[in-house]
Amino acid sequence: MSSFNISQLTRVVNEAILALDNIKTSENLKKFKIKYLSANSQIVKSGKLISTLPADKRAEAGQKVSQFKETILHKYLETAEKIENDILNQRLKNESIDITLPFNRRVLGARHPLSELIDEIEDFFTSIGWSISDGPEIEAEWFNFDALNFTPDHPARAMQDTFYTTQPNLVMRTHTSPVQIRAMLSQGVPIYIAVPGKVFRSDELDATHSPVFHQVEGLAVDTNINLSDLKGILSIFAKKMFGSQAKTRIRPSYFPFTEPSGEIDVWFEAKKGGGGWIEWGGCGMVHPNVLRSVGVNPDKYSGLAFGIGLERTLNLRHSITDMHNLVEGDIRFAKQFIQGGIKGGASA
Ligand code: PHE
Predict the structure, then answer these.
(1) Protein residue with its CA nearest to atom 12 in ligand 1
(2) Hey, which of 131, 246, 263, 338 would disulfide with 346, CB 3.0 to 4.6 Å?
(3) What is the Å distance from ligand 1's center to 236 Cα?
(4) Would you say the pTM of this structure is higher than 0.85?
């Protein structure tokens, strides 16, 4: 363009506006800028030709040129902004996090101290070669009582201790001992098992009682099991639970399914009013009638058995004075038992 030509200029501007509509990359935008907005562009060049026009045409031509420049610049900036936004959006899309992907979860809760204790007990018994067994919490009266040598009129069967169900002969098991029967029937003898589990008795919830609590049953039946084995296993188990200083004794007692029967006591130096023995659970040598009820010959086999309260174990070990703490499930309580939390222990 060697002379100022307004219609040609108008064409160039229209061409430029159309071109901008199709520009999607900053690279193309740069090329556009060189072609239409640089010193070599037709618009800028034609601006310089204004001086060649007759004086009375110059003002109008100058206005036109700057109007054209502005139109192109305006549309150019609009396009530049759009391209920038597109790039940003694409980046956000590429770098966004997929919140549905699995990640390394940090546990915010805490397991119940009873669950931790049950793991600890299972580890101990499996480490000495025993197996872990279980049985149903709703139990046939025959397993819970009859097979365990309870006479039909034994007081433990009475309404105040046992939760009966609407089904005849089905009760909420009052102890883990029925699993002795189940395990011997299904696995035979010799047998060495530990049975942690829930048991139920119609007690009111108070500082030391709960209608639902936990026991661990122990049963070993073999050809040569005697009272010293019972004393030995309970002594080692107590040391595992309360520390290597823990002292135990077995005191005579009565259970229909053991003969002789005993209570296992642990010595606690910190007992209120000075050191003393505290009852930990029941134990004894398996009654011959129990072996007979599962078809095991009591002349050939003998067995030891024990049943230890797990809430009681935690309460003694950690000086927990209120059973409500174990029942209510407050996470602030449970968290204290995470490794490195509170520790108690029996003293010699
Ligand atoms: N089952 C008894 C109870 O709940 C405890 C026990 C178990 C006693 C095994 C002797 C042998 O009180």
Answers:
(1) 282
(2) 246
(3) 18
(4) no
